[in-house]
Specification:
Blueprint lengths: L2 H11 L8 H13 L6 H17 L7 H10 L9 H38 L9 H5 L15
Amino acid sequence: MTQERFAELAMAYGADIGRWPEGEREAARRLAGAEAAPGTASVALEAESVLDHLLWRATAASPSLALSDRVIALAPPARAAPGWLARWLTGVGVATGLAGACAAGVAMGVVFAPHALINVVTPIHAPPQGEEAAAGDAFGVDGAGVGDVG
């Protein structure tokens, strides 16, 4: 650690090396302990300790009662909580929105479901019924008679 870096840290963090950044503390303690000549790290710490002492002794001034009253008077008024009617209307609005969404879902189902169900419910080739069922054994896969020549 250089003397310049030590002075920068002392001005930024004060005379207590324990409040300095953790990575800088050990090097700062070595430099402060090894230096004993005037104009070195110990002088910087002494100067900063005077400032630290003055800052700790300083007290914050309390605002006057007149200033407090003026600030409170300038504050916007508190809004009242919504009444029962506003809460009820909000609930009605939410319920109406949900009912509308459900109705839209049902309408979409009514419009699009029959087209989808026609392909599922109605087979493409109806199976033979009655007398045709007995003769159905003679039909091949494509519906043409076995003895038919095409």
